[in-house]
Hints:
Helix content is 81%, strand content 0%. By secondary structure, it is mainly alpha-helical. The protein has one domain: Orthogonal Bundle (Arp2/3 complex 21 kDa subunit ARPC3).
Amino acid sequence: MFFTTRQLAVFIVLASLCVAIQLSPRIGNVEFTSIITFTMGVFFGGFIGGIFGGTVMFINGFLSPWGVAGFIMPFQMVGMVIVGVAGGVYRRYGVEKNPRRLLLESAILGAFLTLIYDVITNSGVAIQAIINSGVPIQAQSVFLTIFLFGIPMSVLHVVSNIALFGFAFPPLTKAVHKFM
Length: 180
């Protein structure tokens, strides 16, 4: 697939915006990468949306103000690839034109995709904890512990993405569509 000049400009601007937001000080787990990656999937298809999300998380994995991602980075990348691909799937089956329904659909999709992302990344944290422990431990207890301690951050992540997907996705798609 080849980009037109406008499409390439949108891709570069949104990728730069994602990286800049990821690197800026903010409340943990309140992020804009998911909605921008999903939007890229809607406009450019799931393949490009997935590449976009994986690339942004790869860059973030090395430059994050929280430190180098290390072992967790591939899990973050896979989670964001899924978000980009989901945008392409949503595009394929038609982005809803009714504003109320679009708000509701995008908010539900935001919650669902955020839960998937959090399960994937929390699984990565649990696997890393098991590997780093150096002692035989029961994997299920480690997973349970990681997931229980991750609940507050996951709730914040899901709630913030419900708001972002529900209220920012419609105007974001209008702006990108208008530019392209």
